Amino acid sequence: ALYPSLITEDSPTQTVGAQVPADGLAKVRHENRMMSLDKALKPEDLLDFEARTKRFLGTYRDLRYHVMPKFDGLAIELIYEKGRLILAATRGDGQTGENVTPNALTIPDIPEKLSSPQGKHFGQPVPDRLTVRGEVFMEKGEFLRLNAGREEEGLAVFANPRNAAAGALRQLDPEVTRRRGLRFFAYGLAEPVAVGLRTYGELMAALKSWGFAVESSEFSASDKTVTEALAIFGRLEQARDGLPYEIDGLVMTVEDLDLWISLGTTARSPRYAVAAKFKPRLAETRVRDIDIQVGRTGVMTPVARLVPVLVSGVTVSNASLHNKDDLAR
Protein backbone atom coordinates (compact mmCIF):
# COMPACT_ATOMS: atom_id res chain seq x y z
CA ALA A 1 0.00 0.00 0.00
CA LEU A 2 2.91 2.37 0.71
CA TYR A 3 4.75 1.54 -2.53
CA PRO A 4 2.12 0.84 -5.23
CA SER A 5 4.76 1.05 -7.96
CA LEU A 6 6.21 -2.24 -6.64
CA ILE A 7 2.94 -4.21 -7.01
CA THR A 8 3.14 -6.96 -9.65
CA GLU A 9 0.25 -8.79 -11.29
CA ASP A 10 1.36 -12.16 -9.93
CA SER A 11 1.65 -10.95 -6.33
CA PRO A 12 -0.47 -13.05 -3.93
CA THR A 13 -1.73 -9.78 -2.45
CA GLN A 14 -3.46 -9.10 -5.77
CA THR A 15 -5.21 -12.47 -6.07
CA VAL A 16 -5.90 -14.85 -3.20
CA GLY A 17 -7.92 -13.20 -0.46
CA ALA A 18 -8.81 -10.15 -2.51
CA GLN A 19 -12.15 -8.70 -1.43
CA VAL A 20 -15.11 -8.81 -3.80
CA PRO A 21 -16.73 -5.38 -4.25
CA ALA A 22 -19.34 -4.71 -1.56
CA ASP A 23 -22.05 -4.15 -4.16
CA GLY A 24 -21.81 -7.79 -5.27
CA LEU A 25 -20.39 -9.89 -8.08
CA ALA A 26 -19.76 -8.16 -11.41
CA LYS A 27 -21.54 -9.47 -14.51
CA VAL A 28 -19.44 -11.14 -17.23
CA ARG A 29 -20.55 -11.79 -20.81
CA HIS A 30 -19.17 -15.04 -22.23
CA GLU A 31 -17.37 -14.77 -25.56
CA ASN A 32 -18.76 -18.17 -26.54
CA ARG A 33 -22.13 -19.18 -25.14
CA MET A 34 -22.02 -21.84 -22.41
CA MET A 35 -24.74 -24.19 -23.63
CA SER A 36 -26.68 -26.88 -21.80
CA LEU A 37 -26.77 -30.48 -22.98
CA ASP A 38 -29.73 -32.31 -24.46
CA LYS A 39 -31.01 -35.04 -22.14
CA ALA A 40 -31.42 -38.74 -22.75
CA LEU A 41 -34.07 -39.74 -20.19
CA LYS A 42 -33.54 -43.46 -20.68
CA PRO A 43 -30.41 -45.37 -21.79
CA GLU A 44 -31.98 -46.40 -25.10
CA ASP A 45 -32.11 -42.71 -26.06
CA LEU A 46 -28.34 -42.90 -26.60
CA LEU A 47 -29.01 -45.18 -29.57
CA ASP A 48 -31.46 -42.61 -30.92
CA PHE A 49 -28.80 -39.92 -30.42
CA GLU A 50 -26.31 -41.87 -32.54
CA ALA A 51 -28.86 -42.55 -35.29
CA ARG A 52 -29.84 -38.87 -35.36
CA THR A 53 -26.20 -37.76 -35.43
CA LYS A 54 -25.33 -40.15 -38.26
CA ARG A 55 -28.29 -38.91 -40.30
CA PHE A 56 -27.19 -35.32 -39.79
CA LEU A 57 -23.65 -36.16 -40.92
CA GLY A 58 -24.87 -38.31 -43.79
CA THR A 59 -22.77 -41.29 -42.73
CA TYR A 60 -23.41 -44.98 -42.10
CA ARG A 61 -20.26 -45.69 -40.12
CA ASP A 62 -20.51 -46.04 -36.36
CA LEU A 63 -19.25 -43.09 -34.33
CA ARG A 64 -16.76 -43.10 -31.47
CA TYR A 65 -17.41 -41.32 -28.19
CA HIS A 66 -15.80 -40.03 -25.03
CA VAL A 67 -17.79 -40.74 -21.86
CA MET A 68 -17.56 -39.34 -18.34
CA PRO A 69 -19.83 -38.94 -15.31
CA LYS A 70 -22.16 -35.94 -15.38
CA PHE A 71 -21.17 -33.89 -12.35
CA ASP A 72 -23.89 -32.35 -10.20
CA GLY A 73 -22.17 -29.05 -9.49
CA LEU A 74 -21.74 -25.58 -10.89
CA ALA A 75 -20.32 -24.93 -14.37
CA ILE A 76 -17.71 -22.18 -14.64
CA GLU A 77 -15.40 -20.71 -17.27
CA LEU A 78 -11.73 -19.89 -16.70
CA ILE A 79 -9.83 -17.54 -19.01
CA TYR A 80 -6.04 -17.64 -19.13
CA GLU A 81 -3.77 -15.17 -20.89
CA LYS A 82 -0.14 -16.17 -21.42
CA GLY A 83 -0.72 -19.03 -19.00
CA ARG A 84 -2.10 -16.94 -16.12
CA LEU A 85 -5.68 -16.90 -14.86
CA ILE A 86 -7.29 -13.51 -15.49
CA LEU A 87 -11.00 -14.34 -15.11
CA ALA A 88 -13.30 -16.97 -13.61
CA ALA A 89 -17.02 -16.65 -14.30
CA THR A 90 -20.10 -18.69 -13.49
CA ARG A 91 -22.27 -20.04 -16.31
CA GLY A 92 -25.26 -17.89 -15.36
CA ASP A 93 -27.83 -18.01 -18.15
CA GLY A 94 -25.22 -19.25 -20.62
CA GLN A 95 -24.61 -15.82 -22.09
CA THR A 96 -23.91 -13.79 -18.94
CA GLY A 97 -22.39 -15.02 -15.68
CA GLU A 98 -20.76 -13.54 -12.61
CA ASN A 99 -17.09 -12.75 -11.94
CA VAL A 100 -15.88 -15.11 -9.18
CA THR A 101 -12.13 -14.86 -9.86
CA PRO A 102 -10.97 -14.21 -6.25
CA ASN A 103 -13.09 -17.15 -5.03
CA ALA A 104 -11.93 -19.50 -7.80
CA LEU A 105 -8.31 -18.84 -6.82
CA THR A 106 -9.00 -20.39 -3.41
CA ILE A 107 -9.84 -23.75 -5.03
CA PRO A 108 -6.66 -25.87 -5.11
CA ASP A 109 -7.67 -27.69 -8.33
CA ILE A 110 -7.74 -24.40 -10.30
CA PRO A 111 -4.19 -23.41 -11.25
CA GLU A 112 -3.30 -19.73 -11.16
CA LYS A 113 -0.56 -20.38 -13.70
CA LEU A 114 -0.52 -23.16 -16.29
CA SER A 115 2.32 -25.57 -16.86
CA SER A 116 3.47 -26.67 -20.33
CA PRO A 117 2.13 -29.98 -21.69
CA GLN A 118 4.17 -33.13 -21.45
CA GLY A 119 4.15 -35.91 -24.04
CA LYS A 120 4.29 -36.09 -27.82
CA HIS A 121 0.82 -37.43 -28.59
CA PHE A 122 -0.56 -33.92 -29.06
CA GLY A 123 2.43 -31.64 -28.42
CA GLN A 124 0.50 -28.38 -28.09
CA PRO A 125 1.99 -25.48 -26.13
CA VAL A 126 -0.28 -23.43 -23.91
CA PRO A 127 -2.01 -20.91 -26.21
CA ASP A 128 -1.64 -17.21 -25.43
CA ARG A 129 -5.37 -17.13 -24.64
CA LEU A 130 -7.19 -20.19 -23.36
CA THR A 131 -10.81 -20.57 -22.22
CA VAL A 132 -11.29 -23.63 -20.00
CA ARG A 133 -14.62 -24.97 -18.82
CA GLY A 134 -15.36 -27.27 -15.95
CA GLU A 135 -17.40 -28.00 -12.85
CA VAL A 136 -17.04 -26.71 -9.30
CA PHE A 137 -18.43 -29.18 -6.77
CA MET A 138 -18.34 -30.18 -3.12
CA GLU A 139 -17.46 -33.73 -2.15
CA LYS A 140 -20.01 -35.65 -0.08
CA GLY A 141 -17.71 -35.89 2.94
CA GLU A 142 -17.07 -32.14 2.94
CA PHE A 143 -20.80 -31.50 2.61
CA LEU A 144 -21.57 -33.60 5.69
CA ARG A 145 -18.81 -31.85 7.64
CA LEU A 146 -20.11 -28.43 6.63
CA ASN A 147 -23.70 -29.22 7.61
CA ALA A 148 -22.63 -30.73 10.93
CA GLY A 149 -20.78 -27.50 11.75
CA ARG A 150 -23.76 -25.37 10.76
CA GLU A 151 -26.09 -27.44 12.94
CA GLU A 152 -23.80 -26.90 15.93
CA GLU A 153 -23.90 -23.14 15.28
CA GLY A 154 -27.68 -23.16 14.97
CA LEU A 155 -27.56 -22.23 11.27
CA ALA A 156 -29.74 -23.58 8.47
CA VAL A 157 -28.19 -26.60 6.75
CA PHE A 158 -27.73 -26.88 2.99
CA ALA A 159 -30.13 -29.11 1.07
CA ASN A 160 -27.48 -30.79 -1.08
CA PRO A 161 -23.81 -30.50 -2.14
CA ARG A 162 -24.70 -28.61 -5.33
CA ASN A 163 -26.48 -25.82 -3.44
CA ALA A 164 -23.64 -25.68 -0.93
CA ALA A 165 -21.04 -25.39 -3.72
CA ALA A 166 -23.01 -22.69 -5.54
CA GLY A 167 -23.39 -20.66 -2.36
CA ALA A 168 -19.71 -21.03 -1.49
CA LEU A 169 -18.49 -19.92 -4.91
CA ARG A 170 -20.64 -16.78 -4.84
CA GLN A 171 -19.47 -15.52 -1.45
CA LEU A 172 -18.34 -11.90 -1.20
CA ASP A 173 -15.49 -12.95 1.10
CA PRO A 174 -13.06 -15.42 -0.58
CA GLU A 175 -11.95 -16.67 2.84
CA VAL A 176 -15.42 -18.14 3.35
CA THR A 177 -15.09 -19.89 -0.02
CA ARG A 178 -11.70 -21.29 1.00
CA ARG A 179 -13.13 -22.80 4.19
CA ARG A 180 -15.87 -24.62 2.24
CA GLY A 181 -13.36 -26.99 0.59
CA LEU A 182 -14.55 -26.80 -3.01
CA ARG A 183 -13.12 -28.96 -5.80
CA PHE A 184 -12.94 -28.56 -9.57
CA PHE A 185 -12.82 -30.83 -12.62
CA ALA A 186 -11.95 -29.44 -16.05
CA TYR A 187 -13.83 -31.02 -18.94
CA GLY A 188 -13.50 -28.78 -21.98
CA LEU A 189 -12.33 -25.76 -23.93
CA ALA A 190 -14.44 -23.08 -25.59
CA GLU A 191 -12.61 -23.62 -28.92
CA PRO A 192 -10.66 -26.91 -28.82
CA VAL A 193 -10.11 -27.17 -32.59
CA ALA A 194 -8.47 -23.74 -32.65
CA VAL A 195 -5.92 -25.05 -30.14
CA GLY A 196 -4.90 -27.78 -32.59
CA LEU A 197 -6.48 -30.76 -30.83
CA ARG A 198 -8.12 -33.55 -32.82
CA THR A 199 -10.03 -35.72 -30.33
CA TYR A 200 -11.76 -35.35 -26.98
CA GLY A 201 -9.20 -37.74 -25.51
CA GLU A 202 -6.40 -35.39 -26.59
CA LEU A 203 -8.35 -32.48 -25.11
CA MET A 204 -8.54 -34.18 -21.71
CA ALA A 205 -4.87 -35.15 -21.85
CA ALA A 206 -3.93 -31.55 -22.65
CA LEU A 207 -5.99 -30.21 -19.74
CA LYS A 208 -4.31 -32.64 -17.36
CA SER A 209 -0.82 -31.78 -18.63
CA TRP A 210 -1.51 -28.05 -18.23
CA GLY A 211 -2.17 -28.62 -14.52
CA PHE A 212 -5.94 -29.16 -14.29
CA ALA A 213 -7.68 -31.85 -12.29
CA VAL A 214 -9.78 -34.10 -14.55
CA GLU A 215 -12.14 -36.96 -13.72
CA SER A 216 -10.09 -40.14 -14.04
CA SER A 217 -12.25 -42.95 -12.68
CA GLU A 218 -13.00 -46.11 -14.67
CA PHE A 219 -16.15 -44.36 -15.93
CA SER A 220 -14.22 -41.78 -17.96
CA ALA A 221 -12.98 -43.24 -21.23
CA SER A 222 -12.19 -42.34 -24.83
CA ASP A 223 -12.88 -43.96 -28.20
CA LYS A 224 -15.97 -45.94 -27.17
CA THR A 225 -18.88 -47.17 -29.27
CA VAL A 226 -22.43 -46.33 -28.24
CA THR A 227 -22.85 -49.95 -27.08
CA GLU A 228 -19.79 -49.61 -24.83
CA ALA A 229 -21.15 -46.28 -23.55
CA LEU A 230 -24.42 -47.99 -22.59
CA ALA A 231 -22.50 -50.63 -20.64
CA ILE A 232 -20.52 -47.95 -18.81
CA PHE A 233 -23.78 -46.10 -18.03
CA GLY A 234 -25.18 -49.24 -16.40
CA ARG A 235 -22.08 -49.77 -14.25
CA LEU A 236 -21.99 -46.10 -13.30
CA GLU A 237 -25.62 -46.10 -12.15
CA GLN A 238 -24.83 -49.02 -9.84
CA ALA A 239 -21.66 -47.38 -8.52
CA ARG A 240 -22.86 -43.75 -8.18
CA ASP A 241 -23.41 -43.90 -4.41
CA GLY A 242 -19.81 -45.03 -3.91
CA LEU A 243 -18.29 -42.03 -5.72
CA PRO A 244 -17.00 -39.20 -3.48
CA TYR A 245 -19.08 -36.60 -5.37
CA GLU A 246 -22.67 -36.37 -6.63
CA ILE A 247 -23.48 -37.23 -10.24
CA ASP A 248 -26.79 -37.46 -12.08
CA GLY A 249 -25.89 -39.28 -15.27
CA LEU A 250 -23.31 -39.88 -17.99
CA VAL A 251 -22.16 -37.46 -20.69
CA MET A 252 -21.48 -39.01 -24.11
CA THR A 253 -19.55 -36.76 -26.52
CA VAL A 254 -18.49 -37.36 -30.13
CA GLU A 255 -14.76 -38.12 -30.03
CA ASP A 256 -13.70 -36.46 -33.31
CA LEU A 257 -13.48 -32.69 -32.75
CA ASP A 258 -13.69 -31.94 -36.47
CA LEU A 259 -17.17 -33.45 -36.43
CA TRP A 260 -18.16 -30.90 -33.76
CA ILE A 261 -17.82 -28.21 -36.42
CA SER A 262 -19.92 -30.18 -38.91
CA LEU A 263 -22.61 -30.91 -36.32
CA GLY A 264 -22.80 -27.41 -34.88
CA THR A 265 -25.45 -26.52 -32.31
CA THR A 266 -29.16 -25.92 -31.92
CA ALA A 267 -30.41 -22.73 -30.27
CA ARG A 268 -29.43 -24.00 -26.83
CA SER A 269 -27.47 -27.28 -27.10
CA PRO A 270 -24.53 -28.77 -29.03
CA ARG A 271 -25.43 -31.58 -31.42
CA TYR A 272 -22.22 -33.49 -30.62
CA ALA A 273 -23.00 -34.40 -26.98
CA VAL A 274 -25.84 -35.75 -24.87
CA ALA A 275 -26.39 -36.29 -21.14
CA ALA A 276 -27.90 -39.66 -20.24
CA LYS A 277 -29.78 -39.17 -16.98
CA PHE A 278 -30.29 -41.74 -14.25
CA LYS A 279 -33.79 -42.82 -13.26
CA PRO A 280 -35.23 -40.45 -10.67
CA ARG A 281 -34.92 -41.59 -7.08
CA LEU A 282 -38.20 -42.34 -5.36
CA ALA A 283 -39.30 -41.84 -1.76
CA GLU A 284 -42.52 -42.38 0.17
CA THR A 285 -44.12 -40.01 2.67
CA ARG A 286 -47.52 -38.97 4.08
CA VAL A 287 -49.77 -36.02 3.34
CA ARG A 288 -50.35 -34.18 6.63
CA ASP A 289 -52.62 -31.42 5.35
CA ILE A 290 -53.80 -29.60 2.24
CA ASP A 291 -53.79 -25.80 2.08
CA ILE A 292 -55.20 -23.51 -0.58
CA GLN A 293 -52.86 -20.86 -1.98
CA VAL A 294 -54.44 -17.85 -3.69
CA GLY A 295 -52.40 -16.25 -6.46
CA ARG A 296 -52.41 -12.56 -7.34
CA THR A 297 -54.98 -13.17 -10.10
CA GLY A 298 -57.31 -15.04 -7.76
CA VAL A 299 -56.40 -18.54 -8.96
CA MET A 300 -56.57 -21.01 -6.07
CA THR A 301 -54.10 -23.89 -5.98
CA PRO A 302 -54.18 -26.76 -3.47
CA VAL A 303 -50.78 -27.54 -1.89
CA ALA A 304 -50.02 -30.73 0.02
CA ARG A 305 -48.05 -30.36 3.25
CA LEU A 306 -45.93 -33.50 3.54
CA VAL A 307 -44.00 -35.23 6.26
CA PRO A 308 -40.52 -34.04 5.13
CA VAL A 309 -38.67 -36.67 3.10
CA LEU A 310 -35.18 -36.65 1.60
CA VAL A 311 -35.02 -37.31 -2.16
CA SER A 312 -31.67 -37.09 -3.98
CA GLY A 313 -30.28 -34.81 -1.30
CA VAL A 314 -33.27 -32.45 -1.33
CA THR A 315 -35.80 -32.30 1.52
CA VAL A 316 -39.34 -32.22 0.09
CA SER A 317 -42.08 -30.95 2.39
CA ASN A 318 -44.62 -29.43 -0.03
CA ALA A 319 -46.18 -30.52 -3.31
CA SER A 320 -48.43 -28.53 -5.62
CA LEU A 321 -51.67 -30.37 -6.45
CA HIS A 322 -52.66 -28.20 -9.42
CA ASN A 323 -52.42 -31.06 -11.93
CA LYS A 324 -55.25 -33.58 -11.54
CA ASP A 325 -53.60 -36.25 -13.72
CA ASP A 326 -50.30 -36.09 -11.86
CA LEU A 327 -52.15 -36.18 -8.52
CA ALA A 328 -54.00 -39.33 -9.56
CA ARG A 329 -50.79 -40.96 -10.79
Topology (elements, then pairings):
Blueprint: E1 27-29, E2 38-40, H1 45-57, E3 65-71, E4 74-81, E5 84-90, E6 96-98, H2 101-104, E7 129-137, H3 140-152, H4 161-169, H5 174-179, E8 183-189, H6 200-209, E9 221-224, H7 226-239, E10 247-254, H8 257-263, E11 273-277, E12 287-294, E13 300-311, E14 314-320, H9 324-328
Parallel strand pairs: 2-11
Antiparallel strand pairs: 1-6, 3-9, 3-10, 4-5, 4-7, 7-8, 10-11, 12-13, 13-14
Task: Note down, in words, how this protein is organized.
By secondary structure, the chain is of the alpha+beta class. Helices cover 25% and strands 28% of the residues. It contains nine helices and 14 strands. It has a five-stranded mixed sheet with strand order 2-11-10-3-9, with helices on both faces. Strand 4 and strand 5 form a beta hairpin. The longest helix has 14 residues, at 226-239. The model has no long low-confidence stretch (mean pLDDT 89).
The main sheet orders its strands as 2-11-10-3-9
Question: Count of DSSP helices?
Answer: 9
What is the typical, i.e. mean, pLDDT?
Answer: 89
Radius of gyration: 22 Å
Oligomerization state of this entry? single chain
Secondary structure class reads alpha+beta
Say how many strands there are: 14
Could you name the key traits of this structure?
alpha+beta; 9 helices; 14 strands; five-stranded mixed beta sheet; 329 residues; four-stranded antiparallel beta sheet; 28% strand
Summarize the structure.
This protein has 329 residues and is of the alpha+beta class.
